[in-house]
Amino acid sequence: MTTTLAALQSWVDQVATQTQPDSIHWCDGSEAEYQQLVKLMLADGTLTKLNEKTYPNCYLHRSDPNDVARVEHLTYVCTEDEDDAGQNNNWMNPADAHARMVGLFEGCMRGRTMYVIPYCMGPIGSCFARCGVEITDSPYVVINMKLMTRMGSQALERIEKEGTFVRGLHSTGELDPERRFIVHFPEERSIMSYGSGYGGNALLGKKCHALRIASYQAREEGWLAEHMLIVGLESPEGAVHYIACAFPSACGKTNLAMLIPPEELHDWKVWTLGDDIAWLHPDDTGKLRAINPESGYFGVVPGTNPKTNKNAYDMITHDTIFTNVATTADNEPWWEGKKEGTPAKDWQGRDYDAANGPAAHPNSRFTVAATNNRAYSNLCDAPEGVPISAIVFGGRRKNVAPLVYEAKSWEHGVLVGAGTASETTAAMVGEVGVIRRDPMAMKPFCGYNFGDYFAHWLSFRERTTHLPKIFHVNWFRQHENGEFMWPGFGENLRVLQWIIDRCEHRADAQETPIGFLPHPCDIDTKDLDISEETMGILTSINTRQCRDETISLGKYLEGFGERTPKALLDQQRIVLDALSESLAKAS
Ligand code: SAT
Ligand code: MN
Description:
Layout: H1 6-19, E1 23-26, H2 31-44, E2 48-49, E3 59-61, E4 75-77, H3 82-85, E5 90-91, H4 94-105, E6 113-121, E7 130-136, H5 139-148, E8 150-151, H6 153-162, E9 166-171, E10 181-185, E11 190-194, H7 199-202, H8 205-221, E12 224-226, E13 228-234, E14 240-246, H9 253-257, E15 269-274, E16 278-282, E17 288-291, E18 296-300, H10 306-315, E19 321-323, E20 326-327, E21 333-334, E22 365-369, E23 386-394, E24 404-406, H11 410-418, E25 421-423, E26 435-437, H12 450-458, H13 460-463, E27 469-473, H14 493-503, E28 510-512, E29 515-517, H15 532-538, H16 543-558, H17 566-586
Parallel strand pairs: 1-6, 3-19, 4-5, 4-10, 7-9, 9-11, 14-23, 23-27
Antiparallel strand pairs: 2-3, 6-7, 6-8, 10-11, 12-16, 13-14, 13-15, 16-17, 17-23, 18-22, 19-22, 20-21, 24-27, 25-26, 28-29
Bound molecules: sulfoacetic acid and manganese (II) ion (MN).
Manganese (II) ion binds at residues 227, 249, 276.
C-alpha cells in the first residue's frame, strides 16, 4: 500500500531518506496486521503472552525502566513567537527545534521497520474528526494506535480526500533520557517525538495531536479540544444527560466514565462515551456537542478491581495490552489493589520483592478497544456527537475544595476551571503529591498560551446560546488522619445526580462567594456510612482558605501578563471581594 496523495508520499520518502529504515510498512489497520505484529513482538521479547485461558489475547509489554511516564520537562511547543506558547509550555524556537530533531532522527531507523500509520481522531464520517499520520519505528506503538484510534485504510482514504493531515514523526531512538524530546509545531501542524516509547510521549494521536495540536487548531476554528471524559447518565425515567469532566491524569476519569450505580441508584444507567479527551463544538441549535476523538482507553491499572471499576476490571480480561504490570506464577497480570492473586514477577521482570517497591508500576497501563467496555455507548460512532448538559472540573485536593459546587455564570465557570489545582500523580515524571495549578486539567496539554486559552473559553458566551452549566468536584477531601471523607467511585453518582437536578432546575442550593453548594440534605446519602459532620464539611467552605486560594489564583493568572483576559480577572476580583466581605462580617 502506498498513497495517491503526493504530499503524504513525499513526506514519507523524505523521512525514509533521513532515517534510513530497512523497510517501510503502510498500516492497513486490519486484524491480520495486528496479529502479525504481535507475533513479531512475541518473538523478539517486546511482548510476552499472558495466561491464554484466563486472559485470552492479552499481552504484557515492559518498558525501559527509565521510560514509564510522560516527560513534561522534555515536551516543547515551538511557535515563532515565544509568547504564543506561553509560560504554561516549554518553548523552543521552531528553527532550533527542527535542527535538533534532524540531528536525532538522522539514520535512527537503520535495522528497523518504519511504520506509516494513517489515523482518524473521531468517527471517520464526522466533520468534527481530524486526521493525522504517525510515522514510527515501534510496532508497540502501532498496535496501541490500532486500539486507541481509527487507523488504517479508511483513515487513509479520508486523508487522501481531504489532502491535509497532522504529521507525527516518532522514533524510540536509544531510549536515552538525555536524547529524549517531544516537540510540537502547532503552526505547521506537526509533531516530532524521539527517545521514548511510552503512552503520551509516543502514541502521537493522543495528547500530542488530540490535545496540543488540536487545542491550537480549535482556537483558530472556534471549538475546544479538552482533557475530558464524556459520560451519559440515564435516569430511571429514561432522560439522558451527557456531561464532560476535566480531571488531571490519574485522578479517576476512567472510573467516572465507567461508573456503576450503587444499589441505592440501581435504576440509573451509565454510558461511556470517552475517558480522556473531548472535542466540543457549538452546533446549529446553540448547544455544545462533544465527540471523543479516541476509540480506546489507555488507563491506569493499579487500583482497578470489582469495587472501584467492575466494567474496567472485566473489560481488561481479554484483548488487552498491559504495560508495566506485575505477573503471578500463573502468568496472569497483577497489580496493587487487584485483590486476587499474588505477584511472582514485578513490572521489571524481577522476582517480586517488596523491598523493591510496588510490584506493578504506579503508572502501569492497559490499552483496550472501547468496544470491550460493557458500558460502551453506540453514540461514540455518531458523527454529530452528543449534547453536553454540564462541564465538570476537578482535582485531587486534601482540603479547600468542597465536594461539589456550581459556578454562577459561564464567565465565573471559566474562572473555576482556570483555578483547578491538583496533587501531582505518577502519570508524569516527577514528585508525586505536590499541589500544582492545572487549569481545566490542561496544564501539560494546552498547545498555546493559557491567557489566550482562557479568552477562547470566555468567547463561547458569544458563540452559543445554550451553554452548559459549569461545576467543580473534589472526590479526594481528607480528614486530618488522611482518611477520605467521601466514598467515591460508584457513589459519585449521588453528586452527579445533584448536578443533573441543577441543570433541570430541580435542586436547591446555597449561595456562597465561590458558587452554589448543595445543602447537606440535597445530596442523597441513604445507605452511606458518612456522618452529618463530615457532610457538613463537604458541603461548606472555609472562607479563609478560599480567600487565600483566590488570592494565589489571582497572582497565577496575572503571570500570563497582558494575555490574561480582563473579564477573567474581574471574576477573580468579584469572588475575592465576596470572600473578604464574608470574613469581615464574621469577625
Ligand atoms: O501517558 S498518557 O498521556 O497517554 C496518559 C496520561 O497521562 O493521561
Ligand atoms: Mn489523560
